[in-house]
Amino acid sequence: MSQDNAPDSSVGMESLSLKTEQPQKPSDVTKIDLLLNAAGNAPIMKQRKWTVDYMKDVNWVCKFIHKYLKLDPEEKLFLYVNQTFAPSPDQVLKNLYECYGNQNKLTLHYSISQAWG
């Protein structure tokens, strides 16, 4: 049998190297771009994009939104990551950014009534 139909092994895989640019490793980040979107019947923030310290926790973000929107102290505020789940209040933003951040930002949705999960 001849080897004429065998694939040409002289074509090396070296020529197929992928060159991708890594923007910035999440572990090198000290500030995080936070995108805050309203959900349900929540008031809309005039400024949606914020740059915050990566060591802040979800509770801090909740208090910040509460204060920014001038909500009553007894009004509840729900936060969701990428419209899927509600993170715990003691969760650090850096961890959420490393796991769920996309396009160099972390997207959080806020609502004054329970919306998802």
Please render the helix and strand layout as text.
Elements: E1 31-38, E2 49-53, H1 58-68, E3 78-81, H2 93-100, E4 106-111
Parallel strand pairs: 1-4
Antiparallel strand pairs: 1-2, 3-4
Let me know the largest β-sheet.
4 strands, mixed
Number of domains: 1
Question: What structural class do helix, strand and pairing data support?
Answer: alpha+beta
Number of helices: 2
Amino- and carboxy-terminal Cα gap:
63 Å
Can you tell me the residue ranges where pLDDT is under 50 for at least 5 consecutive residues?
Answer: 9-22
Which series of helices and strands comes N to C? EEHEHE
Based on the structure given, which CATH architecture is correct? Roll
The chain-level mean pLDDT equals: 81
How many DSSP-defined strands?
4
Question: What order do the strands of the largest sheet run in, or round the barrel if closed?
Answer: 2-1-4-3
Q: From the 3D structure, determine the CATH topology.
A: Ubiquitin-like (UB roll)
Subunit structure: Forms a conjugate with ATG5.
GO molecular function, one term: Atg8-family ligase activity
Function: Ubiquitin-like protein involved in autophagic vesicle formation.
Pfam families: APG12 (PF04110)
